[in-house]
Amino acid sequence: MSKTLSSKFVESFLIRTNDPNRKLWLHRFLVLLLTFIVYTIYHMSRKPMSVVKSRLFNGNVTDHQNNWPPFDGSNANTFLSILDGAYWGTYAIGMFFTGFLAERSNLRYFLSISLSICGLLCIVSGSAFYLKIHSLWFFIITQVLTGLAESTGWPAVLAIMGGWFGSTKKGFIFGIWSLHTSVGNMLGTTIAGIFVDFNWGLSFIVPGLLCIIISIVIFFLLVEKPSDVDLIVNMTLPDDNRQMKLSDEESITNTVSTISLSSTIDSKIVKNSSSSSSSSLSTKKSESNSLKSSSSSTTTSSEPIGIWDALFIPGVIEFSICLFFTKSVSYIFLTWLPKFISTTNRIPASESAYISIMFDIGGSVGSIMAGLMSDIINAGGITCIIFLLMAIPSLFLLAHFSSISLAINLALQFMAGFFINGPYSLIITSVSANLACTVPSKAATATISAIIDGTGSIGAAIGPAITGPLSDYFTWNSVFYLCMVGDFIAACCLVRVAWNEWKRNHCSILKRCNSSISNDDYLSSSIQSDEKQIVS
């Protein structure tokens, strides 16, 4: 196979080794780093609008000098919600199609082009400040186009990660990797916050320029798949099947140990038993090898999976509906938290932007802990339910006690971010990649992630879109109650998945215990039989 431009460049200047294991480790690290940077930049480019909202409308309808028409009237928050709906609505629609396109495209070209387009659209949005554009339709159209461009990122980066890391346990790795969401939010908030009070146009233009720079880096450094550098990554069977295979191998090992121990009693008897057991061992090994060969044959298909087929993969529908509500809550805070802090505490937009970073810090820690917990208990659904239920009281506390002091506000933000973003990050990363490993196609990750994240993005479009009218006609507390209900419904969506995970893990534990007991019984009976023969 002829090597791509990026693979030649990387192996010529960055990775020079002939050791396959070291080569694979280094390439994985590079892919992990590059995809992390890419999606950090994607998230960074989404954040300026949430920061600039407080500058477009500061909450005082009579302050026409400091507000930006047409966001200077009594319906200003509703207009801002329309922009959110335009962005996230087209993002959700685009997600279903971009996942389909990503699986059928060169992902390096796909990411480079789409990220540069995102950068150009950010620059266009920022130009409204310099050109004195006050048309609502201009802002709506730019948000629609930006939403479509942004939807290209997630299916592509997750497909690349899935191809490089196979079906190894990814909860902890993806938990760390998914920090790109929080890091991107914090970076976007910081950059936008620097300029928002005196030149909000630069809040868009600077992230746009960074998008274009990173797209060039990706073009030259990203290696799309292991085969481009003559490496192979195993795409193994799902966890429950791997546990069955592990149980068989443990049984074989215990049989050999039994034979070895019984040899200390009577060597003559051992010869007979070892010959029979070795035939049994060879039979089991041949069965194990045939199972491995059949599994490898089922995982070597590179044909993309269809959207309709992906919907029938167990767990896809449940996690998609769950993410609809989970992402809705997460993106209400992503897009409106600086505005909420600025309005309720009556502080400048730049200060509220910096304070809201604590929510993303909590989300970063929550993402790692959710991934680690999922790996330990081998149950993504149970992990998500626990986090979602704990998010409800944290939202209640944030709504009613955040204005007491800055320290309490920061602590409650951290706690809310921890429980809200933990399950969100787990579902869009580790869960989506693991579901893709349950089907023979190696090219299923982009489609499955597009379905799950696309459904979630519909929620992300609806949640922020109704937040403005709710805060206009009711109070901010009504927004928090809406989030509590959303997290509860999200947890209910995963009850069947969690029950199946509990049964699978329970049966696996029982199977291992029974296997251990049967081997102990066999050893005891064998020793007693040998002793009787020696005495006689």
UniProtKB/TrEMBL annotation:
What's the protein called, per UniProt?
A: Sugar phosphate exchanger 3
- Which species is this UniProt entry from? Dermatophagoides pteronyssinus
**Keywords, A to Z?**
Membrane, Sugar transport, Transmembrane, Transmembrane helix, Transport
Which Gene3D superfamilies has this protein been placed in?
A: MFS general substrate transporter like domains
Entry's transmembrane regions: 25-42, 85-102, 109-130, 136-160, 172-196, 202-223, 311-333, 353-373, 385-408, 414-436, 443-466, 478-499
According to Swiss-Prot or TrEMBL, what is its membrane topology? Multi-pass membrane protein
The record's subcellular locations are:
Membrane
Q: Name one GO cellular component term.
A: membrane
Q: Where is the composition biased (Low complexity)?
A: 271-302
What family does this chain come from, according to its entry?
A: Belongs to the major facilitator superfamily. Organophosphate:Pi antiporter (OPA) (TC 2.A.1.4) family.
- Note the PROSITE patterns from the entry: MFS (PS50850)
Query: Start and end of every Major facilitator superfamily (MFS) profile domain?
Result: 31-502
